[in-house]
Amino acid sequence: MTKWMTKDILSIHKALVEKEVTPSELVEECIERIGKDQCNSFEATRFDEARKEAKKITEIGEDEVLKGIPYLAKDNYSTKGTETSASSKILTGYVPTFDATVVKKLKRAGMIQVAHTTMDELAMGGTGTTGRKGDTTNPYDKERIVGGSSCGSAAALAQGIAPMALGSDTGDSVRKPASLAGLVGYKATWGRISRFGLFPFAPSLDAVGFFTRDVLSAAYVLTALSGHDKNDMSSSYRKKEKYEKYVLEGKRLKRVGYFKAVMDSIKDPIIKDAYSKLLEELRKKGYEVLPYDYPIELLDALYPTYMIISCAEAGSNDANLDGVRFGPAATNNPKTYKEYMIDCRSKGFSDLIKRRFVIGSFSLLAENQPEMFNRAQKARRLIVDAMNRFFDSFDYLIVPSAYSIPKKIKDLSTAWSTHPDYLDNILTLGNFGGYPSVTVPLTFDQGMPIGVNVTGRIFEDGYVLSMGKEIEDITGLKNLVAGKENK
Ligand code: GLN
């Protein structure tokens, strides 16, 4: 098997310009690798369309870095003519009549979408086990989860199936699986990239994100995707930038902070050691690296605040999934709209989704709203204010993206944790404040990759990516692929 799909975007681009390989050959390699997927990474495929798009590309200029390169999209990015189900039974058979803005922009840049990837149903969840097609597994150990909700995108990239995959990030859904799969996972500043055509989960938190094999690739993709879109009122008018310049020119800020409480709570010696060593290396390179006392009660508030806000928004957004507009029809001979909807929604959603809708609706009931939803909104304000104070004295927050290697699927529990660990929820900080945030590989623990995350001030995406590159240079971990058979 040829091996272009295991490389980073710039290397593939150079080969295309040199005519060492053609877009059609790249698409064929991607299709062949999809056929060998071991982890249940795929929903719909669009092989014929991809082949046609590849054939049309004849010339590739030196500055057309994305042109002719295959990519994958999480199954919640509307793609004209391709079933887009968000891995939910209730959207089975839904074929959008338009492209999401990011899909359109990637097409305009010449990238070729080859398939949709599995996800936790409707992007809720973090295990990769709740989609309509069952468990998506970790290529480094197929008994373990790859994390979610962007599970298929992470599993596919870690198997060397494509050099880029779209994900979406509401709490950590790109940055957590990236960590568990040895990839770069990036979430843009809220409003930097249009979300038109991305199925909403919790729009005050949702951001476009993507997986790549190295940081520079992520910067090129961001440059292509950023900018205002008249179809998304929340997309920013702020000037577009060439984000790859930050990475290529090493444009970085100096002050790195870490949370003392988080450092003290890490039990895994390998992760603690790798994290401490990384901070030490950064110090040696001239960064100011200092601890910070982020309020413990706000760290404790992350999980409940996230659950209330995200479930409330999800319940309201997904109210349109009533079985009438999309998805399979009711099968119980309903007499009323209510009976019809109850039948479709009872059969169309998994337990996790139903549980979250109940929480969302409960917190929005008029009599509960002051105590639940309004309090969560206030807690969010305190969380973000405290983060902005942190950013008065620091340019970056660096945290490990996980406490341990991923769980085995058989050990997963549906019980909700009453004492969640800080690191299980810390990445939600990035969504509460809309901050740009990137996960890059940090180390290996028992053969499983572990990532580290960098978060910065809003619209400092370039500086955040550039710090990601600094860490990539320190660890030397990039272009990772699991399993000898995939290399
Ligand atoms: N794991 C988080 C959740 O379950 C994040 C989901 C996401 O970012 N889409 O909601």
- Bound chemical compounds: glutamine
Largest beta sheet: strand ordering: 1-3-2-6-8-7-12-13-11-9-10
Poorly predicted segments: none
State the share of residues found in helices, binned by percent.
25-40%
- The first-to-last residue Cα distance is 9 Å
| Helix/strand order | HHEHEHEEEHEHEEHHEHHEHHHHEHHEEH
Largest sheet: 11 strands, mixed
Number of strands: 13
Principal-axis shape equals: globular
Mean pLDDT: 96
Beta-strand content bin: 5-15%
Report on this model:
- There is one protein chain.
- 38% of the residues lie in helices and 15% in strands.
- It has 17 helices and 13 strands.
- It has helices at residues 9-17, 23-35, 47-56, 101-108, 151-158, 175-181, 215-225, 243-248, 260-265, 269-284, 296-317, 337-348, 351-364, 373-393, 422-425, 428-432, 461-475; strands spanning 42-45, 70-74, 112-117, 137-138, 141-145, 164-169, 184-187, 207-212, 255-259, 288-292, 396-400, 437-445, 448-456.
- The longest helix has 22 residues, at 296-317.
- It is globular and about 65 Å long.
- The mean pLDDT is 96.
- Glutamine binds next to loops.
Give a brief outline of the structure.
The protein has 17 helices and 13 strands.
Throw out a few tags for this protein.
38% helix, 17 helices, two-stranded antiparallel ribbon, binds glutamine, alpha/beta, 11-stranded mixed beta sheet, 487 residues, single chain
